[in-house]
Amino acid sequence: MPDTVTPSVLDSIRAIVGDRGLLTDPSDTAPYSEDWRRLYRGRTQAVVRPGSTEELAAVVRLCARTGTAIVPQGGNTSMVGGAVPAEDGSEIIISTARLNRVRAIDPVDLTMTIESGVTLKAAQLAAAEAGCLLPLSISSEGSAQIGGVLAVNAGGNNTVRYGNARDLVLGLEVVLPDGEIWNGLRRLRKDNTGYCLRQLFVGSEGTLGIITASVLKLAPAPREIAVALCGVATVDAALSLFTRFQAHDAASISAFELMSGLGIEFVLKHIPGATLPLESPAPFYVLVELATPRPNAGLRAMLESVLEDALGESIVLDAAIAESDAQRAAIWKLREEHSEAQKREGASVKNDVSVPVSKVPAFIHEATAACAALIPGVRAVPFGHMGDGNIHFNLEQPVDADPKWFLEQDHPIMDTVNEVVRKYDGSFSAEHGIGKLKPYMMPDWRGGAELALMQRIKAAIDPAGIMNPGKVLP
Ligand code: MLT
Ligand code: ZN
């Protein structure tokens, strides 16, 4: 047994959090030790579930004293293994799950003060009950917790309109690697007082401290929402549809999502209840959502008129407009179940990349050709947040390939896709972060002064290196 997690360390943790806050039985800790994608299986001797920020801070103080490494964990939905412990059992997991109170919502200030263990879905519902909108939506929102969402600076479906998680954060409460609590829970729109520390922790993936609570910006609740699913022949046509909506009323576009024919096929095949509301399948699809808090804004009429013109010019092949909340949910289901359907179809390698929106068609075209040349029979499933240039360029194994062999090709596949990303001045990680999967790419993409600065920040804030070791930095 690695000597930092000794029986006496475990006894001291139990004295802080009680029996209810500590899991040590391997059958209890196993689900926390493996990631959602099943890329990594680690091992831990303890999953600590503190019931308050003070308890969490006391556990971190103990870890700092004993040199015990910590893996912070929220809903464990990372796409890059960001919340899995090492295989040698030397790291404990600190779960934020029991920090699950909405502390306050202010519909005048349009802010929400919330603890890190609240799921994104529950936070959205709490905002809606107060007549507001928490404008952040990701496919895993039913399990993903606010703390993790902020720690990875999640993006999702509404970035085109509201930005990433980072853009919604006004204040943070963080437990630092020495166990001190930084209370930065200010809810000001203007606060120009030195270095912006909260933005250092957002996107740090638990390597600088543990976010325990936050103040998030809300928006007025939408009064009108219009959603359509459109079949298009090419990604160029999808882009041209996007520019039409932009020209009509850019401010009302709250999502503009791209899907491929194959991606939809997988959803229809693997997800019970999924149906295509169009007469015939198309090579690509766009899900467009328009929303506005303005009364009588005429969104539906605008949607219809843009689509009619686009149908007339054969930019859109076919379109279905949702007539009810149920139809809207059914259209979103086709998009949100993409990852699950791909998982059921077989092994897949994910590339969460971004390029300028105008380059999305060229990028998809060239990356598809490059991957087909690398692995004949590989099935490209590009989809995602076209309105902000973030494409999930996922590759599904060839039909008859051995899944294990295919997953071993992840580096050559990711490197091939990234060459095309580089050509268009894009990013190798748009919204999923770096985790355990991508630190090897950092020297190449963020080397020199940028990586050196990140390493100095890490050394200054976490000199003993106990916070989420092996993640983000190579
Ligand atoms: C999504 O947008 O559904 C996820 O971020 C995508 C993925 O599975 O790569
Ligand atoms: Zn996404």
Verbal overview:
The protein has 474 residues and is an alpha+beta fold. It folds into four domains: 7-95, Uridine Diphospho-n-acetylenolpyruvylglucosamine Reductase, domain 2, CATH 3.30.43.10; 102-220, Uridine Diphospho-n-acetylenolpyruvylglucosamine Reductase, domain 3 (2-Layer Sandwich); 224-338, 2-Layer Sandwich (Alpha-Beta Plaits); 346-435, Alpha-Beta Plaits (2-Layer Sandwich). The protein contains 17 helices and 19 strands. Strands 5-6-10-8-9 form a five-stranded antiparallel β-sheet. α8 runs antiparallel to α10. The longest helix has 15 residues, at 235-249. The chain is globular. D-malate binds at residues 79, 139, 338-339, 350, 352, 384, 392, 394. The site of zinc ion has 5 residues, from β18.
Instruction: Provide the CATH topology of the largest domain.
Output: Uridine Diphospho-n-acetylenolpyruvylglucosamine Reductase, domain 3
Q: Number of DSSP strands?
A: 19
Class computed from helices, strands and strand pairing: alpha+beta
Which CATH C-level class of the largest domain is it? Answer: Alpha Beta
Oligomer: single chain
Domain count: 4
- Considering DSSP H and I runs of 4 or more, what fraction of the residues is helical? 25-40%
What is the second-level CATH architecture of the largest domain? 2-Layer Sandwich
Report how far apart the termini are: 26 Å
- Tell me the major beta sheet: 5 strands, antiparallel
